[in-house]
């Protein structure tokens, strides 16, 4: 039996009954009920209907019942609604590498029922279009003379709302609550609330890759999340309250917009009171004359002689209470705030007039279990506490704005936010060209400042990410100038990445980092020999304002397949399943953990180099990592030392990371990392110190330690009083390595009180003599002479010259020292294509070339003179002496040092050119020496037998 509803008639009956002084009550088992005297909680069961043809408005679905139901807050995906994933699924997001749709290796993942995409996490159901949500609500008695509003904390995306058959309006904010005013003098009783939600990109194109809407990260969900409620406010109430702290004047300026919906002018008494870190302050009173509608009022509130300031070290919060009293009127509004001033001094940033340095990461709306951002404070506190444990003090929200819970958590923990207006106007979208996005961004920024402007954590704002458009520079310059004049509580920049303009409060640019987009093997880390004596002074000297480097890092690690079990929500790692299949299909099952740990150590090394370069730069503003945790989209960018759930992967801890990423970090400038025993170490020791206060009477110490922890040398440094800032010299270290008798991996360590940092260095004997008869012949080519030598039982080391390996044998695999940058899919194959080495450090081949199981700086020379040899080209069962880890998209078995038997002889093939210019390459000389010692010993006993012609076919 169906219940019939005539919402329009019911509403008219109510109004008539009210005129007659009567009332009528309607009862419902699923109506929203008040959770306080002024709020009706609408969470729970809602009617639901998909409107794929977008006909619901014309057919007046707001007057009809729906057969399906969903639970809100939530999305269609969390409720299991939508379409099955198909090849034709209309994803929201750019796919740079479209090989999935045609490459034979993906054929089994294109089959109905087994669709698995490699470019992002995959929902079980997907829907893009219009959907309707419907709920019976009950307005309680006593609300007739209240101002009522329907609030959706976060709707995705455009929402249109009806109460019974009355249209309330349309909202499309992505970063703030969507609010609808209900009709005046609404009588108590039942009503039907209908919400039409459309998650398509319409006239306002924020950009398909914007993390506010994209399937690359949170997913393009359809629904309503967070608090969904109807709120009742007195007809006279504080509509807006903006608080402007001034730490120099020791006061806070209060700006009110007071709503008067009584229909007549009147006067109210206002009482202002502040409580917080240092107790309750003396109240202030004022009389406010209200016109009909909105009235503005301003007051300066003194904060006492010593107001408690807010920052990352002392997140002191206050609460301002404003009470309005008049004839039959009492209204209260409360807002928390912090006495905080974010500014600059020359090219450096300041917090409360003290030098500071931004150490940040990105948050790209990555929430696999829900597919949308959390709206509870505890979850945001967990995330921020993880970031702080890794030495960070701020977070950039890439092309989106977080909900209030995130700001509340950051306020309480002392964490700085850069917030953006939900747009990445690029790759099909532009800004500044007169399109609807231009108006939308300004309106969205106004909404964001209105909603979150009092939060002390809201320190930086940009329009969004990496803009495009013929006139984007002019538009974004105006954007910055508008907000600088409008609201001095934070700093503004045009866009994350660019453009750099004179009007910026701070610059966001990708120039200061060790690998920039498109540099490939020509970046500092891949082209320049290892050192720590460079910085970004030359780059930032061209600008007057502080510079925060944009998206540094982007260093990848091998997928952690044990992570798959953590995906218990709506987004599934089908991409990881593809990559695991590739590894297993190539005969490498069992290697996944080794690849993760080895590539992870290289990833951490790359991040350390990036971060320390920023910290070494005098006058620098800070950096924003991409990323502390993995980015699951854009082809799968495994760039985090943490997974998407902010959990460690096992190869570096927060404590280890904080040694090189913290408010205080000891640093050294080394011109190189590899020495011979007839040379000396000369290092300038510095410190970056952006703590709470200067360090007085500390004694910096340095040591050089052997691998077993024993001390080789050490001493104190002269600078004992350390001011705030960076580029602060602590002293110099000079040490001659004449006492080092054998190849050593040493550790240079500097400690300043409880702050400790360290750097590995290598020392090789200046001269090496073979202790046994050298039976090894070294060749760079294979000819008849080498064939005869091997077939007669000779021992040969083949050192392949650079460029000599055939493509099908591995010559087309770009090897570099660094990890993969971002990923090869989204960068269109940008080199390097490998993730460092993996080996057994106890293998006798490395007895005289100290190594760990993973890449470290002593391998830089080898990796920049290397080919990766495809073992499936030779013999897929071969186990190399030295392996290089392949890109997870291809997961090939690759070797740098491969041994085999040829005829009666023994052969070691080196994909590393160990001969070219080796008089200038101490690492090559030492590795060659170690390999020859191994090959002259009984330990050199290859198992795999290959023909000479097979080996020779490797070479062009």
Adjacency order of strands in the biggest sheet: 31-30-29-28-27-35-33-32
Mean pLDDT: 94
Number of DSSP-assigned strands: 50
Largest sheet: 8 strands, parallel
Low-confidence stretches: 1-35
Estimate what percentage of residues fall within beta strands. Answer: 25-35%
User: Which radius of gyration do the C-alpha atoms yield?
Assistant: 33 Å
The percentage helix is 10-25%
Oligomer: single chain
CATH homologous group name of the largest domain:
Glycosidases
Assign the structural class, choosing from mainly alpha, mainly beta, alpha/beta, alpha+beta, or little secondary structure. alpha+beta
Quickly describe the structure.
This protein is α+β, with helices and mostly antiparallel strands and 956 residues long.
């Amino acid at each position: 039996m169906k219940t019939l509803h005539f919402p329009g008639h019911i509403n008219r009956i109510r109004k008539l009954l009210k005129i007659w002084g009567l009332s009528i009550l309607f009862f419902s088992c699923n109506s929203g009920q008040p959770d306080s005297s002024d709020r009706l909680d609408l969470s729970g069961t809602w009617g639901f209907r998909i409107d794929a043809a977008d006909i619901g408005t014309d057919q007046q679905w707001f007057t009809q019942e729906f057969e399906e139901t969903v639970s809100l807050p939530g999305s269609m995906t969390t409720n299991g609604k939508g379409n099955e994933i198909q090849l034709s699924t209309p994803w929201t997001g750019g796919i740079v590498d479209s090989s999935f749709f045609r490459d034979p290796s993906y054929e089994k993942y294109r089959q109905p029922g087994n669709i698995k995409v490699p470019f992002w996490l995959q929902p079980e159901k997907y829907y893009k279009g219009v959907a309707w949500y419907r709920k019976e609500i009950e307005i309680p008695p006593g609300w007739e003379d209240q101002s009522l509003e329907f609030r959706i904390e976060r709707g995705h995306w455009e929402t249109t709302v009806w109460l019974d058959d009355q249209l309330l309006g349309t909202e499309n904010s992505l970063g703030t609550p969507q609010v609808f005013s209900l009709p005046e003098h609404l009588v108590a009783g039942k009503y039907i609330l209908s919400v039409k939600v459309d998650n398509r990109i319409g006239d306002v194109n924020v950009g398909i890759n914007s993390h506010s809407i994209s399937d690359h990260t949170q997913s393009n969900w359809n629904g309503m999340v967070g608090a969904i409620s109807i709120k009742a406010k007195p007809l006279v109430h504080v509509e807006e309250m903006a608080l402007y702290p001034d730490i120099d004047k020791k006061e806070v300026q209060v700006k009110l917009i007071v709503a008067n919906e009584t229909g007549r002018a009147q006067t109210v008494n206002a009482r202002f009171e502040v409580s917080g870190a240092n107790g309750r302050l003396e109240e202030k009173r004022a009389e406010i004359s209200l016109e009909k509608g909105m009235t503005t009022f301003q007051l300066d509130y003194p904060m006492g002689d010593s107001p408690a300031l807010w920052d990352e070290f002392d997140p002191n919060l206050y609460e301002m209470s404003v009470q309005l009293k008049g004839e039959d009127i009492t209204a209260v509004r409360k807002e928390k705030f912090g006495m905080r001033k974010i500014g600059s001094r020359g090219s450096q940033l300041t917090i409360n007039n003290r030098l500071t340095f931004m150490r940040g990461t990105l948050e790209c709306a990555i929430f696999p279990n829900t597919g949308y951002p959390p709206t509870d404070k505890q979850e945001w506190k967990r995330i921020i506490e993880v970031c702080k444990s890794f030495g960070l003090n701020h977070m950039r929200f890439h092309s989106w704005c977080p909900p209030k819970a995130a700001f509340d958590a950051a306020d309480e923990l002392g964490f700085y936010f850069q917030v953006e207006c939900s747009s990445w106007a690029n790759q099909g979208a532009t800004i500044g060209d007169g399109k609807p996005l231009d108006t939308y961004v300004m309106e969205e920024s106004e909404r964001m400042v209105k909603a979150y402007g009092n939060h002390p954590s809201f320190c930086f704002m940009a329009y969004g990410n990496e803009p495009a458009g013929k006139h984007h520079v002019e538009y974004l310059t105006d954007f910055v100038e508008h907000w600088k004049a409008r609201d001095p509580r934070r700093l503004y920049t045009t866009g994350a990445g660019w453009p750099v303009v004179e009007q910026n409060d701070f610059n966001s640019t990708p120039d200061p980092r060790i690998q920039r987009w498109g540099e490939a093997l020509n970046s500092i880390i891949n082209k320049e020999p290892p050192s720590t004596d460079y910085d970004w002074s030359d780059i930032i000297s061209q600008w007057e304002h502080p510079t925060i480097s944009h998206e540094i890092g982007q260093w990848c690690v091998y997928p952690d397949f044990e992570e798959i079990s953590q995906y218990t929500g709506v987004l599934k790692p089908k991409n990881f399943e593809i990559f695991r299949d590739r590894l297993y299909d190539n005969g490498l099952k069992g290697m996944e953990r080794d690849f993760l740990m080895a590539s992870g150590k290289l990833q951490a090394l790359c991040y350390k180099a990036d971060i320390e370069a920023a910290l070494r730069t005098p006058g620098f503003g800070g950096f924003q990592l991409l990323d502390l945790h993995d980015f699951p989209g854009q082809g799968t960018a495994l760039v985090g030392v943490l997974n998407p759930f902010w959990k460690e992967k096992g190869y570096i801890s927060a404590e280890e990371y904080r040694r090189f990423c913290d408010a205080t970090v000891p640093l050294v400038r080394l011109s190189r990392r590899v020495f011979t025993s007839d040379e000396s170490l000369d290092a300038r020791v510095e410190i970056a110190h952006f703590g709470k206060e200067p360090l007085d009477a500390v004694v910096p110490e340095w040591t050089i330690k052997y691998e077993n922890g024993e001390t080789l040398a050490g001493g104190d440094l002269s600078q004992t009083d350390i001011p705030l800032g960076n580029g602060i010299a602590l002293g110099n270290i000079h040490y001659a390595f004449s006492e080092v008798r054998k190849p050593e991996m040493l550790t240079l360590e500097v400690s300043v009180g409880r702050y400790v940092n360290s750097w590995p260095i290598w020392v090789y004997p200046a001269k090496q003599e073979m202790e046994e008869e050298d039976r090894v012949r070294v060749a760079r080519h294979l000819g008849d002479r080498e064939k005869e030598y091997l077939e007669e039982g000779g021992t040969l080391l083949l050192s392949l010259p650079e460029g000599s390996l055939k493509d099908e044998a591995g010559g087309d695999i770009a090897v570099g020292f660094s990890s993969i940058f971002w990923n090869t899919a989204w960068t269109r194959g940008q080199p390097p294509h490998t993730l460092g080495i993996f080996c057994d450090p106890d293998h006798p081949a490395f007895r005289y070339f100290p190594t760990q199981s993973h890449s470290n700086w002593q391998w830089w020379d080898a990796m920049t003179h290397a080919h990766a040899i495809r073992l499936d080209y030779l013999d897929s069962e071969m186990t190399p002496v030295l392996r290089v880890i392949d890109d997870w998209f291809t997961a090939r078995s690759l070797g740098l040092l491969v041994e085999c038997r040829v005829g009666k002889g023994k052969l070691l093939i080196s994909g590393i050119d160990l001969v070219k210019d080796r008089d200038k390459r101490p690492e090559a000389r030492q590795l060659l020496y170690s390999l020859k010692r191994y090959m002259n010993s009984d330990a050199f006993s290859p198992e795999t037998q290959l023909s000479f012609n097979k080996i020779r076919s490797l070479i062009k």
